[in-house]
Amino acid sequence: MSVIVLIGAPGSGKSTVGPLLAERLGEEFVDVDARIEQVEGRDIPEIFLVDGEPYFRQVERRETLAAIEHGGVVSLGGGAPLDVEVGKVLDQVCVVWLDVSARTAADRVGLKDTGRPLLGGQVHSQLVRLMKERRAVYARPATIRVSTDRLTPDEVVETIIAEL
Ligand code: S3P
User: pLDDT tens, 52-95?
Assistant: First the structure.
């Protein structure tokens, strides 16, 4: 089975667009963050708190590689493309980068986000920092880039399908 991998910062719309795109294409959908929570039997903040980020990244790498191998439409966690092994695999598959400004991402995530440990209490400033660090990492493997700031989820799906 072929695979389409959605990457981008937290708040870029991966978890919203992924299921819509999968439905339009008649493919399976996997959200790797949700998959990690399922196999671990606890949520991501708890994994970070109890076992730390290096442990989370190890599980994330394993589940990301397995999901891409399985195929369909796969939404990655925002930090997954930074992993060297994941990066190598992304170079060989269809990658859609959902690009977003820090302002829009912060509005979507919400100021009181508690599900993303890396954002802490300072959602906007942390997103500015993350995006500065990661822009090139998202851009490098991207087959398609969609700027999502002014698009609805359905419009993002139509834009992706038009470019596939
Ligand atoms: C992270 C993003 C989160 C989640 C974890 C770490 C990151 O996923 O994997 O909190 O490093 O950017 P989303 O991009 O779906 O928010």
Answer: 999 999 999 999 999 999 999 999 999 999 999 999 999 999 99
Closest CA to 80 of 92, 89, 70, 69: 89
Domain residue limits at 60? 3-163
Please choose from 118, 131, 135, 137 the residue to mutate so as to test ligand 1's pocket, defined by most ligand atoms within 8 A of CB. Answer: 118
The predicted pLDDT at position 122 comes to 83
CATH of the domain at 19: 3.40.50.300
ipTM: 0.98
Q: How many domains does the chain have?
A: 1
